[in-house]
User: Which sequence fits this backbone?
């Protein structure tokens, strides 16, 4: 939909949103009308360099041509079926995902939080049916973020965050331990524990990658104690971190992994992948979704994965992440630059407010996001080149110097 065809102005669009929508988002002050590759465009043609990619979504670039073509083609064939008939895109995508990341089975959902709900439900049912009614506790990490539905909210170890405040009691069955601290997780294990669940890089928690010692240690701990290892790769999955899945950076495998965001290349789809053993917990009728496995989203995801793999996006994420972050280290007021591939966080010292940096970048046509008071997160499309890193760096430098 183009603004010129509506007879409205940009201000009219903003006013309608303010009047009719329940707003929980702090918006960038522009109307995003079109997008291509590394840029988003306002109706007047102003280009914004996209270093947030719909928050780690548009891996193969905004409106990737092959993804767009797959969506257009599938829309003309069959759109929604529920999961009663077999569909071609589902079957092909399921095979592609499992064979690419070395897992046995997949279950399709629509979003990250739903995928985490499925992962939590599968682990709990596995524990209760295999060991008894109390065996459903999951240890997650403080400062984690797993989504905004009740299971995922409750798994999130951030009781002081707006995503939990005011919603009453969380769902029972979760205990929390310190991220990157193996002993802390070990101490929380009881006879009721069924699983450990973490993000390989804590994103909303401030872009903190897990150490190799922590991740390999968690795998061993789970093996020793007969627990399931659940990885939330909603934000890290599909080439962002320099490997197809972040767990591959550590040389380990989870029992269940959740994914969403980049999987669909801009279309809403999520999934969990599980080992045959864990997947047994989901029996006929025990879980389901009206839209999960939607043919159009599956066709888009298949095209996106092919693009990510064909274009070497994981390798590019590693190379460009290293290049960009070495430059970011030289910015004034930087306390720490943390990253895994192109999952980048810049923590500034206490004199710089992250929202001011975000707004300053926006004024200079660079889109980044702020986490907390002092951290900027950048998760650009994985097709980016050195020139985009250089442009973003110059804008950040000008912004920080002006503040
Ligand atoms: C690690 C992680 N898990 C889950 C979610 C929730 O995903 P969604 O917004 O698709 O429900 C997010 C979203 O930012 C995330 O970063």
Assistant:
């Amino acid at each position: 939909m183009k603004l010129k065809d509506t007879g409205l102005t940009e201000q009219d669009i903003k006013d309608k949103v303010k009047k009719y929508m329940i707003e929980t988002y702090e918006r960038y002050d522009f109307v995003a009308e079109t997008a291509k590759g590394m840029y988003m465009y306002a109706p007047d043609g102003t280009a914004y360099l996209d270093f947030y990619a719909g928050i780690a979504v548009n891996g193969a670039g905004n409106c990737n041509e092959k993804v767009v073509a797959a969506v257009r083609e599938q829309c003309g064939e069959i759109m929604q079926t529920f999961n009663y008939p077999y569909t071609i895109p589902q079957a092909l995508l399921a095979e592609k995902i499992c064979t690419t990341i070395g897992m046995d089975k997949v279950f399709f959902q629509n979003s990250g939080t739903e995928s985490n709900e499925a992962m939590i439900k599968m682990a709990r049912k596995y524990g209760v049916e295999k060991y008894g009614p109390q065996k459903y506790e999951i240890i997650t990490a403080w400062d984690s973020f797993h989504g905004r539905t009740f299971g995922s909210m409750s798994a999130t170890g951030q009781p002081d965050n707006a995503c939990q405040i005011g919603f009453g009691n969380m769902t029972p069955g979760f205990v929390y331990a310190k991220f990157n601290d193996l002993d802390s997780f070990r101490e929380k294990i009881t006879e009721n524990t069924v699983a450990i669940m973490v993000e390989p890089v804590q994103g909303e928690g401030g872009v903190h990658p897990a150490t190799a010692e922590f991740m390999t240690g968690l795998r061993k701990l789970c093996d020793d104690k007969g627990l399931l290892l659940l990885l939330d790769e909603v934000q890290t999955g599909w080439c962002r971190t320099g490997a197809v899945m972040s767990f591959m950076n550590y040389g380990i495998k989870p029992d269940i992994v959740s994914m969403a965001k980049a999987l669909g290349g801009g279309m809403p789809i999520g999934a969990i992948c599980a080992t045959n053993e864990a997947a047994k917990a989901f029996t006929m009728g025990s879980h389901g979704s009206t839209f999960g496995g939607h043919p159009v989203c599956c066709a888009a995801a298949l095209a996106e994965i092919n693009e990510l793999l064909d274009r070497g996006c994981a390798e590019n994420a590693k190379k460009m992440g290293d290049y960009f972050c070495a430059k970011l280290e030289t910015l004034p007021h930087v306390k720490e630059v943390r990253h895994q591939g192109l999952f980048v966080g810049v923590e500034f010292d206490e004199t710089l407010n992250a929202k001011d940096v975000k707004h300053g970048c926006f004024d200079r046509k660079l889109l980044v996001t702020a986490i907390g008071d002092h951290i900027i997160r950048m998760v650009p499309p994985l097709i980016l080149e050195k020139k985009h890193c250089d442009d973003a760096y110059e804008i950040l430098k000008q912004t920080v110097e002006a503040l």
Summary: The chain is about 40% helix and 15% strand. The chain has a mean pLDDT of 98. The pocket of pyridoxal-5'-phosphate is lined by residues 55, 111-113, 116, 145-147, 199, 203-204, 232, 234-235, 260 (CB under 6 Å).
